[in-house]
Amino acid sequence: MSITRHIDESKQQVIIKIDGRFDFAQHKAFRDAYRDISPGSKTYVVDLSATSYLDSSALGMLLLLREHAGGDASPVRIQGCGEDVQRVLKIANFEKLFRIE
């Protein structure tokens, strides 16, 4: 389980990758991945391609990132979801809040 961050300055983009379980145990690491970045200054990509599980606290963390990024107009994409992860996001109606690829 780990969270890594990569900043692509040429695209003004932050890529946050979550490996393994995405649950409350990842809260601090996930927040640390974006909190030092000025709100609205970058777009965000959350890479869930190596995420095996996410729970309601992970959904809450994604909403906090969305709020940090600018709320309704936030440039946050979620990509690489496996079938189980995508099902959770769909049940939570996250496709209405995020661009999911």
Can you tell me about this structure?
The chain is an alpha/beta fold and about 100 residues long. It has helices at about 25-30, 55-70, 85-90; strands at about 1-10, 15-20, 45, 50-55, 75-80, 100. The two termini are about 20 Å apart. It contains three helices and six strands.
Uncertain spans: none
Q: Which oligomerization state do the chains in this entry correspond to?
A: single chain
Backbone shape? globular
N-to-C span: 22 Å
Task: Name the structural class.
Answer: alpha/beta
| Helix/strand order, N-terminal first | EEHEEHEHE
Number of continuous helical runs: 3
Work out the strand percent: 25-35%
Helix content: 25-40%
* Mean pLDDT value: 93
What is the count of β-strands? Answer: 6
Largest sheet: 6 strands, mixed
Q: Any idea what the radius of gyration is?
A: 12 Å
Outline the secondary-structure elements.
Blueprint: E1 2-8, E2 13-22, H1 27-32, E3 43-47, E4 51-54, H2 56-69, E5 76-79, H3 83-91, E6 99-100
Parallel strand pairs: 2-3, 2-4, 3-5, 5-6
Antiparallel strand pairs: 1-2
